[in-house]
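Could you join me in thinking about how sequence relates to backbone shape in a protein? We need material for that, and I hope you will provide a protein of your own picking. Once you have written the record down, we can walk along the chain together:

…
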Amino acid sequence: MLKINLPQGILEKSAYSALPSHQKAEYIHNLLKDILTLNKNGITVSQIEKSTCLGRATIWHHLEILASRGMCFKMDRGDTEVYHSNEIIAALKGLEVKDDYYTYKFSIIKNHYGKFVNIQAQQEDGAGNMVAHSGIMLNSAVFSNILNSLAKINDSHLNEENSGKSKGN
């Protein structure tokens, strides 16, 4: 197994174990983002497990959260999942959309596989910080096609004049 790059200042197991639960989750989240950034060709759960004091299930769980929020990119390679970092190249400020529960934020990201539009649904936490709850990455190569499909969905299924009717495509 290839040696991976690790950030400086990783906590020893005893120091990590002494953290309160909410701090452990934040620590793991930030640590995994740093590890992903330092390993540009991608990384597996097994590689992280062998190089840190974290357990396989914990690593997998937090990488899946990061991937579901669009904070990293997961690519299946046979029976192995390889996770890659996403680099935000443009935070699209001023384009946010708000509803009663979420603020939808947009950014342009790039990774090993190309350029993407990232949309995150965020909520304010108890401390006033915006926290991503879900996200999606849309490949720039098919972005126009996705917009066309969304427009058709809007016209056929979401406009008030069509409510109650269901038109197929």
